[in-house]
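Step 1: inspect the first sequence and its tokens.
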Amino acid sequence: MRREDQAIFRPGGGASQLAYLVLDEVHTYAGALGTEVACLVRRLRGHVERYGDTLTCVGASATVGDDQQAAALDFASRLFAVEFEFDALVQESYAPR
């Protein structure tokens, strides 16, 4: 991390303001890109947690089908290095016309 950026992770420097990390189209973070992003997420979480804060990771994707729920949770757990339970999965449901 660059020295000029380290201040945002120190107490009073803004770390407490960093509470959520949201990755949209999370299904695209596979392969080499996914590996790089996973490493960056781990480093970011480490910096935030160093000062007692918690980073909540959210992955959004509109392409996960009902038959892919277990795979989606496994993928998110590996990407964010956090174990996700089934109730962490939020799905859309259509209302009748």
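Step 2: inspect the second sequence and its tokens, then contrast the two.
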Amino acid sequence: MEPQIIEKKGKKEFAVVPYKDFVRMQEELEDYHDLLQLRRAKSDPRNQQGRSFNIVAAALALKKKRA
């Protein structure tokens, strides 16, 4: 990545990056925020108790496929 730095009154004010780098950074930030949300959810005591597949399937009204 080769950003272009724009200065204002001798101070660095802006960095202009190529669009493909901007998109990559944006995707990485979204992944990071998703990871933070996942970690928060996993650490929440309300999410510590697991449920069996059969209980979840029944709650969602899922049916087994016949072979």
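Step 3: confirm your contrast with the notes below.
DSSP finds two helices and two strands in the chain. The longest helix spans residues 19-43.
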